[in-house]
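Posting for a labmate who doesn't have an account.
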Amino acid sequence: MDELVVILCAAPLDQSEEIAKALIEERLATCVNITGVKSYFRWEGGFCAEKEDLLIIKTRKDRTKEIISKIAELHSYEVPEILALPIIKGYDRYLEWVGGEVR
């Protein structure tokens, strides 16, 4: 089986569904969960607190570059948070589904 990853991406509330749908429709990802978060960070020298959505994207490692490009294309942030983390273990049937649905 191909190596699988989870990609995390924080996005504005009004953009998360568009990003998720694009990744699924283009078969770059098998599943995208969206959950609300409050993010605290420094940007351009100042303190920021924002309500955002966190996209939890399941996909194959070999699609990571394309997913990063698609998110950057659709995302309004100058520097969007996009982090790919390896999946080291999980329920075999679920992992087979994740790997099999991405094209």
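Reply:
Got it, the structure tokens are right above this. The beta strands are 4-11, 31-43, 46-60, 82-86.
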